[in-house]
């Protein structure tokens, strides 16, 4: 039986799909030299933002910068250690304007709870928690200094982890730091909503990054990790890139104080 073609669907005139673009926005990404930070920065640039690449290692930042520029994007390099309070506050204050900040720099030292060293404890607390707070505070201060902020909005994205919602062996400190970031995200969101600033977190599962490759360094470890992920594979950096672009865009205008888990179903079990 002959079927007539389906009519082309168009939205009613009163409706318009919100934009997922970031044109005209200035976005700062910490830990932008490699891994998730580099991917998020590239996604922002492809979506039209001017990206400030911040991290400790100039060589790695230059690599991200070259990739963005070669793809037609816009970026600048800002070498800085996020655990240096004075330096990071100065770097953020020196920006002409800031619309989006991504707290991404972090680390992990998987080890049994009873063997956690004071050095590892202090390093993870400083980088995974204290630096997140200082970067977010300096960024929000910069955003609030913009007289048009309430109209233009502002975005803070904290890269957390699925471990901010569950527990896991040999990751007591990491879980503790990521649970702290989830609390920080919610509290900031509630306090800053009336000033037009949205705050959300992204919770990746194990992603295929240099940090994870250092931790998941044997076939047995990789098999154990993927067996816990219902989708059966490590997360791609592109998956986190897409989540970050969405949450930073006008399409997520009513989303604040929540987390977007990109975990392949890990925390659904």
Record keyword descriptors for this entry.
7 strands, alpha/beta, 42% helix, globular, Rossmann fold, single chain, 269 residues
* End-to-end separation: 47 Å
| Chain-averaged pLDDT | 94
Sheet with the most strands, sense and barrel status: 7 strands, parallel
CATH domain class: Alpha Beta
Compressed to H and E, one letter per element, the order equals EHEHEHEHHEHEHHHE
CATH architecture: 3-Layer(aba) Sandwich
Characterise this structure.
The protein is α/β, with parallel strands linked by helices and 269 residues long. The chain has a single domain, classed as Rossmann fold, CATH 3.40.50. 42% of the residues lie in helices and 14% in strands. The protein has nine helices and seven strands; from the N terminus they run E-H-E-H-E-H-E-H-H-E-H-E-H-H-H-E. A seven-stranded parallel β-sheet has the order 3-2-1-4-5-6-7, sandwiched between helices. Strand 1, helix 1 and strand 2 form a beta-alpha-beta unit. Helix 1 packs across helix 9, helix 3 packs parallel to helix 4 and helix 4 packs parallel to helix 6. It is globular, with a radius of gyration of 19 Å. The relative contact order is 0.14. The model has no long low-confidence stretch (mean pLDDT 94).
């Amino acid at each position: 039986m002959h079927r007539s073609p389906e009519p082309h669907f168009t939205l009613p005139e009163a409706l318009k799909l919100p934009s997922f673009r970031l044109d005209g926005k200035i976005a700062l990404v910490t830990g932008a030299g490699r891994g998730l930070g580099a991917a998020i920065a590239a996604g922002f640039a492809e979506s039209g933002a001017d990206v400030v690449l911040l991290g400790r290692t100039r060589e790695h930042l230059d690599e991200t910068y070259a990739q963005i520029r070669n793809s037609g994007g816009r970026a600048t390099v800002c070498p800085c250690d996020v655990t240096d309070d004075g330096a990071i506050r100065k770097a953020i204050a020196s920006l002409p304007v800031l619309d989006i900040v991504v707290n991404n720099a972090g680390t992990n030292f998987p080890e049994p709870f009873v063997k956690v060293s004071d050095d590892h404890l202090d390093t993870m607390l400083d980088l995974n928690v204290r630096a997140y707070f200082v970067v977010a505070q300096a960024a929000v201060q910069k955003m609030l200094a913009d007289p048009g902020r309430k109209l233009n909005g502002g975005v803070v994205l904290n890269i957390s982890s699925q471990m901010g919602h569950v527990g896991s062996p040999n990751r007591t400190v990491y879980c503790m730091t990521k649970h702290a970031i989830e609390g920080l995200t919610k509290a900031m969101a509630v306090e800053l909503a009336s000033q037009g600033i949205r705050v959300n977190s992204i919770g990746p599962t194990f992603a295929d990054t240099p940090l994870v490759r250092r931790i998941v360094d044997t076939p047995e470890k990789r098999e154990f990790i993927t067996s816990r992920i219902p989708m059966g594979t490590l997360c791609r950096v592109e998956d986190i890139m897409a989540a970050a672009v969405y949450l930073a865009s006008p399409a997520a205008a009513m989303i604040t104080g929540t987390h977007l888990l990109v975990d392949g179903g890990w925390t659904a079990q």
